[in-house]
Amino acid sequence: MQTTILLILFFFVLPLAVGDDLRVGFYSSSCPRAEMIVHQVVERNFIQDGSITAALLRMHFHDCFVRGCDASILIDSKKGNQSEKESVANRTVRGFNLIDEIKKVLENACLATVSCADIIALATRDSVALAGGPSYNVPTGRRDGLVSSINEVKLPTPEISVSDAFKIFNSKGMTMEEMVTLLGAHTVGITHCSFIESRIKNESFSMDGDLRNKLFEVCGIKERDPTVVLDQKTPFVFDNEFYNEILLRRGVLSIDQNLALDSISKEVVTSLAANGVSFREKFVGAVVKMGKIDVLTGNEGEIRKNCRVFNS
Ligand code: HEM
Ligand SMILES: *[C@@H]1O[C@H](CO)[C@@H](O)[C@H](O)[C@H]1NC(C)=O
Ligand SMILES: *[C@@H]1O[C@H](CO)[C@@H](O)[C@H](O)[C@H]1NC(C)=O
Ligand SMILES: CC(=O)N[C@H]1CO[C@H](CO)[C@@H](O)[C@@H]1O
């Protein structure tokens, strides 16, 4: 008898308590216009600045890989207490004003209903489609976290090896194929020269000669820490050209180039480079899965009123 109760608890009650109950259309009755509002604000901003796709993709990644997708990346520091966004890895994450703008419109439509964590996931989805990438459904119902600390940020650095990067991704439940697919997000966006300094200088590091010359020239101006695009071919289009570029030793970040050099990841790179349709499908699977990492649901966390501060 007792065993039966325990079994019932284990198989039925506990999984609900752990709460992997995100679902597509979570706001369909509580805030029916939520997804449309997000889309409208993202589209309006995208028309003026196509680089928001890159900003949002990176923000989504940095959010999900620290404490799960709980909008902890959005919290501003307090005096004597630095939040996630202050870490060196986070220093250049951008798009915070866009999230604020979306949140403001949503609060007017439905008070304290749509989480900041869901806003990041939905806005990322919309911006990917606007840049020519796939359209996909995003399960929602995330809640916003109550902790954001610079000390918890342990994100991969650009010089990391494929196997060390995989240790981090694997610890979040992602496969090698999913990792290589997610790094395909580097098909859009930029890097600051400070992240590629040692790679440019290292003559023995595999790099296309023309690219090295170009990077030397652009990154020569030290004072301002200039930026260069990550995908030299189609930097504003969400496509699979990134993989073809790294096969030609034209990866800009060291980790990007490593994907095409490591024998295990190279297989995935070759297949994604050859098939753009398959890249789109696989990216959807991988980014939706990333969006579920350690989410808060149900009564956990809160729905922040201002994405930058905890409701006190
Ligand atoms: C091993 C994993 C990864 C490493 C080491 C890495 C590293 C970096 C670095 C150093 C930059 C340059 C940032 C700057 O200078 O502003 C960057 C940019 C970017 N990353 Fe990653 N990244 C990784 C994985 C990912 C993933 C999984 C995604 C999304 C799914 C992503 C999306 C982006 C985007 C879109 C940009 C361009 C940002 C912009 O234009 O502002 N990255 N990444
Ligand atoms: C401040 O510190 C506490 C831990 O002492 C932490 O839970 C909180 O999220 C921190 N961050 C901010 C920005 O308040
Ligand atoms: C330069 O690149 C080579 C090849 O990847 C690597 O073995 C070496 O450790 C690098 N040297 C420095 C100083 O980073
Ligand atoms: C833009 C931003 O938040 N920059 C901060 C990044 O982190 C350093 C400390 O690690 C701060 O000094 C910057 O102000």
UniProtKB/TrEMBL annotation:
Ca(2+) 2 binds at T187, D231, T234, D239. The record marks R58 as: Transition state stabilizer. Belongs to the peroxidase family. Classical plant (class III) peroxidase subfamily. Its cofactor is Ca(2+); heme b. This is Peroxidase. Removal of H(2)O(2), oxidation of toxic reductants, biosynthesis and degradation of lignin, suberization, auxin catabolism, response to environmental stresses such as wounding, pathogen attack and oxidative stress. These functions might be dependent on each isozyme/isoform in each plant tissue. One of its GO terms (cellular component) is extracellular region. Binds 2 calcium ions per subunit. Binds 1 heme b (iron(II)-protoporphyrin IX) group per subunit. It is an enzyme of class 1 (oxidoreductase). One of its GO terms (molecular function) is heme binding. InterPro entries: Haem_peroxidase (IPR002016), Haem_peroxidase_sf (IPR010255), Peroxidase_pln (IPR000823), Peroxidases_AS (IPR019794), Peroxidases_heam-ligand_BS (IPR019793), Secretory_peroxidase (IPR033905). GO terms for biological process: hydrogen peroxide catabolic process; response to oxidative stress. The active site is at H62 (proton acceptor).
